[in-house]
Structure formats: C-alpha cells, structure tokens
C-alpha cells in the first residue's frame, strides 16, 4: 500500500513538474517567431517580474505543447488547420516566406515551374536558369515546420516529391546554408531573411510570381506566400498569460516587431 502511495505521489510530482508554473510562463514552437518572442519576453520580465521561458522547435511542437499543457502558448507561424480548432489562435503579426539564393549567384528570378523543377530534382544545374554551370544545392525544411508545409502547399508538392541536398530546421540554419554556398537555394521567413541580409549575410531574396519579397508586398496583400504569426493556447488563459498577451499586442511594442522585420497586429 505504501509502495502504491509513493508511486502515485511520484507520478503526480513528475507530471506537475512538466506543467507551466503559475509564476512562470512557457512559450514553445516556431523558430520564425522565437527571436521576436524572446525579445518581447525579456521586456515583459523587466516590467512584470514574471519569468518567461521561450523555446523553439517548430510550429508542430507549439501545437503539441499547447495541447498537452506543456506550454502556456505555442508559437505557430501559420493559420490553424481544421483539425486544430480545439486551440485558440491569438494573431500577433504577419510575415511571408521568401526563396533565397546566395548574393553571388547571378540568378535574380525564378518562375514557379522552375522552383518546382529544382525541388523535385528535374533541374539540377544553374546554367539553364541563367546561372553558372554548377550543381544546385537544394535546402529544404524539416517535417513539423510550418514554413515547409506552406511551401509545399503553395507549389502543389508532396514532401516525398522533394529531392533535397540538405534538410534544416531553424531559419538560421537555412540562412547559414545559403550564405555559405554560392550554389544553394532555400526558403525562409521574409522577415528573417531581410534582417540577416541587412546585417551583412550574402543573401538575395527572389521575387515570387513577379512580386518582390518585401514586407510592403505582404502588407498590401500582394505577396502570394504570406502567413499569420500566431500564439496558440488551449482553454482559458491564466491571469499572467493574459497579461503577457496584452503586453505583446500593445501598439507600443510595434517598434520591436519592426526590428525583426515583422508586421505587428495590435489588439
């Protein structure tokens, strides 16, 4: 009997240790949103004294952790799907997905058909696309990343059709892969790509369907591969979670969103 009681106590203790504490908030998910969220969380901690733990891992993790109660908010860089309506999405911003190449690559534009041919392995050399006679290094996002899901949906591809040379998770890995390889092509957040290019990374953002990969295009509703940036939650928000959400969507935070080249959505 004592053994069963002890086991029960340990199980409750272990499970409670996985839940967000009342005096601490946990946010997990999208690597696109996490740098912005870490900055906003630090500002909130300074103002409120409430600790906020921000962890990346992809939008899939954000969905899973919010559902399991492992996070107060999941970061999801897309709209919720029909089978995710048990969660509540809190829209905080907007972004787009850009095709990127190395700045030293002479290619300045690709059609949708050419992008599909590159990612399915039908086109493996830059020479017939206006580039150098060199093999194309195809950089693709890993499963569980909303950037990958939206890319595939936009180009009408299934993941098993893609023939990548490199599979990456975080946006920063994609930026590094393309910046270090003149023959690489990848796709990442527009905001992240502009931020890194302005900081000196040798990147070129390619237009998509003739529309420049800029925040202005996203803001005007012209860019064909734009997306929502959401925090998702399950059930009623705690008082501290509500405070954090109010803080992050306050118009006074707009400058921080702009620092990371995202479009804020204020409440």
Structure description:
This protein is of the alpha/beta class and 267 residues long. It has ten helices and ten strands. Strands 1, 2, 3, 4, 5, 6, 7, 8, 9 and 10 form a ten-stranded mixed beta sheet that branches. 40% of the residues are buried.
Helical amount among residues, as a percent range? 25-40%
Find the count of extended strands (DSSP E, 2+ residues): 10
Distance between the termini: 54 Å
Name the overall outline: elongated
Q: How does the helix and strand content classify structurally?
A: alpha/beta
**Element-level helix/strand string:** HEHEHEEHEHEHEHEHEHHE
- Unreliable residue runs: 4-19
β-strand percent reads 15-25%
Major sheet characteristics: 10 strands, mixed
- Total helices: the number is 10
The whole-number mean of residue pLDDT values reads 91
Cα Rg? 21 Å
Q: Which secondary structure elements does this structure contain, and how are they paired or packed?
A:
Elements: H1 2-17, E1 24-29, H2 34-48, E2 51-55, H3 59-68, E3 73-76, E4 88-102, H4 112-119, E5 137-141, H5 146-155, E6 166-168, H6 171-179, E7 184-189, H7 190-198, E8 203-206, H8 215-219, E9 226-233, H9 239-248, H10 254-259, E10 263-264
Parallel strand pairs: 1-2, 1-3, 5-6, 5-7
Antiparallel strand pairs: 3-9, 4-7, 4-8, 4-9, 4-10
In short:
The chain is of the alpha/beta class. Helices cover 37% and strands 22% of the residues. It contains ten helices and ten strands.
Please tag this protein with its features.
267 residues; alpha/beta; 10-stranded mixed β-sheet; 10 helices
